[in-house]
Design brief:
four-stranded mixed beta sheet; 53% helix; 2 domains; alpha+beta; 215 residues; globular
Length: 215
């Protein structure tokens, strides 16, 4: 039986898992979960049985349910070691993970849907856009400098082959562009994004190419 991925086309966390599945050429079936329709399909009783946090993604393999994109990606890296997403040496692996965690832990949580929905209810749209841009600017400024100073940098975050760090970065850049954030001060991040979007695993994972897309 194929892997099942519960996904929403605009979810950054689901997007990064789709990239990894594609990079490893793993067969999977998407089951869309619309985070906005009917009050949010993630709050349906059936779905909350899978994930009591009521979030995407959820990955199901052999009747085992996995949540949290970082854990899912690490699982896929361990179980499907071909087309590795991490380098061989421990220090280099830690470097790649540090980039992934900067995005997953420090940037994305402040700008995800539930935070933006809360802000939408509490403040005006202009404040919400300013909030999004502020945290992108703070996160990307540090990341750009880290990439600039890194001996590992190539066409991608690590060398000339896309890997785990890129899978985390590209959805965040995609959303920053969607929110019309000014990325002129981040030439390395922008270049990595352009290189990734020339690769089929990334384009096939993009929101506009999902079965539930509404773009």
């Amino acid at each position: 039986m194929s892997i099942i991925l519960y996904s929403y086309f605009r979810s950054s966390a689901a997007y990064r898992v789709r990239i990894v599945l594609n990079l490893k050429n793993i067969d999977y079936v998407i089951r869309p979960v619309h985070l906005l329709k009917n009050g949010g399909e993630q709050f349906n009783t059936e779905y909350m049985t899978l994930n009591p946090q009521a979030r995407v993604p959820v990955l199901v393999e052999q009747n085992t349910v996995l949540t949290q994109s970082s854990a899912i990606i690490e699982f896929l890296e361990e179980i499907y070691p071909y087309s590795p997403l991490l380098p061989d040496k421990p220090l280099a692996r830690a470097y790649v993970r540090s980039i992934a965690q900067q995005i997953a832990c420090d940037i994305h949580p402040l700008n995800n849907l539930r935070v933006l929905n809360y802000l939408h209810d509490a403040v005006n749209d202009e404040f919400q856009r300013g909030w999004y841009s502020h945290w992108i600017q703070e996160g990307f400024t540090a990341l750009e400098q880290q990439l600039q100073n890194s001996e590992y940098r190539g066409r991608f975050c690590f060398g000339d082959t896309p890997g785990m760090a890129d899978a985390f970065l590209i959805p965040q850049v995609y959303n920053a562009l969607r929110y019309k954030c000014d990325l002129a001060h981040y030439p390395l991040i922008s270049a990595i994004y352009e290189h990734c979007m020339q690769e089929t695993p990334f384009t096939n994972a993009a929101p506009e190419n999902q079965p539930d897309t509404e773009l």
